[in-house]
Amino acid sequence: MNIPMSQVLCYLVLLCPCLAVGEMQGRALFYSFLSYKAGLEQKLERDLNQISFSQGVQTCSQVDAQVNVWKENQENEFMSNVKDIHCKFILGHPDGPAQILLGDGKHVFTQFRLGTIEGLILVFDKSSLVQVSMCIRGVIEKTWKFSVAGLTTVEYIDENKQLVLFYFQEKVFAAGKKKLCKNYSRVKLEKKEIKREFLVPEFKILANDTYSETQHSNMDENYVGLWFNVLNKKYGKNENLRQDMGVFKSLSHIVFNFMGEPEFVNSKLSRFIPPLEEGLNCSDILRTRQLPKMPRTGFIGFPGSGNTWIRFLLEASTGLATQSQNPPTVRKHQDRGCFLTFSHHSALDVLEDHPEAGQPYPMGPLIRLENLLYFSGRTILLIRNPFKAIISSFVHLVFGTYSDSQFGRLAREKKIFRDEFYAELNMTRFYTGEFEQYASDNIEKWATVAQDWIKLGDTLVVHLEDFVENRVSEIKRILAFLEIEPDERRLKCVQYGNFDIFKRQKIKFKINPFPEHLAEKIEKQIEIVDKTLLMYGHRKLPREKYKQF
Question: How far apart are CA 165 and CA 152, in angstroms?
Answer without folding.
Answer: 8
